[in-house]
Amino acid sequence: MSSNIIEAENKTLFEKNLLDKLKGSKEFASTRVIQSPRAVGDIVEGIVRDVAPVCFSKGLITNYKSSFQRRAMEDIAFNDIDGNYFAVDIKTHNKSTKFNMPNITSVNRLAKFYEDDKNYFVILFVEYDIIDEELVFTNVSFNLIEHFCWDCLTVGALGWGQIQVANASYISIKPSSHKEWMIKLCDALDAFYPKFKKVRDFWKQK
Fold first, then answer.
1. Is 131 part of any domain?
2. Which of 29, 59, 140, 187 would be 19's cystine partner, CB 3.0–4.6 Å?
3. Closest among 184, 170, 36 to 200, alpha carbons compared
4. Domain presence at residue 156
């Protein structure tokens, strides 16, 4: 992948800037709010929609969009300067909980989305803890779906399969290409979803 969006320097700067913005927010003062993961998630998503563009280096992204239908893959999206399209799914994780298994997207939807080599799907994880009844943001990570190792993902039995994080407390990241990652996905699904053979054939011929 040639985009400079996920080059280490740019990626790290975005993560740091967004974490600083979240830490500086005054919207989490209510104890009632911070005890509700859904309420925290909704507020975090709203803040990210508002501030994400200024967290990137100037001139790095174009065509920023933050309004989508409820069932869309992305919560925010943009292009890089080379015309690649980044669809970003925002996830929150309360580190105080013992187990969290968030859904990401359906394998069928991702397979169709990745038929275009200029499309990239990103998982934006925002982690927080609750300490002395105060919400404390601890980490922001911005990674392509194909950089998530399969030892921290699973596929739920819904439709053609729903990609899920097996446990949000354990995330394993390793760079991989569209093709390499999608072939591994197809291999994992082959025994359960025979129709997915066509998708594997598509990727092996790329």
1. yes
2. 140
3. 184
4. no
For the whole model, what pTM was predicted?
A: 0.91
Q: Are 5 and 87 in contact (CB under 8 A)?
A: no
CA-based max dimension of the chain: 55
Q: Which residues of 166-191 are buried (b: 16+ CB within 10 A; e: fewer)?
A: bbbeebeeeebebeebbbbbbebbee
Q: What type of residue is 160?
A: W
Q: How far apart are CA 138 and CA 147, in angstroms?
A: 21
Q: In this predicted structure, what is the pLDDT of residue 191?
A: 61
**CA–CA distance, 163 with 110 (Å, rounded to integer):** 9
Mean pLDDT of residues grouped by 10 in the chain (206 residues)? 84 96 83 81 94 94 92 93 95 84 87 93 94 90 94 74 85 91 81 68 78
DSSP string, 60-91: SEEEEE----TT-S-SEEEEETT--EEEEEEE
- Looking at the 3D structure of the chain, how many domains does it have? 1
The boundaries of the domain holding residue 106 are 4-145
Query: Looking at the domain assignment, is residue 30 inside a domain?
Result: yes
- In three state form, how does the secondary structure of 139-172 look? EEEEEEHHHECHHHEEEECCCCCEEEECCCCCCC
Assign residue 121 the CATH number of its domain.
Answer: 3.40.600.10
Asked whether the beta carbons of 171 and 141 are under 8 A apart, the reply is: yes
Q: How many CA atoms lie within 13 A of 127 on its CB side?
A: 15
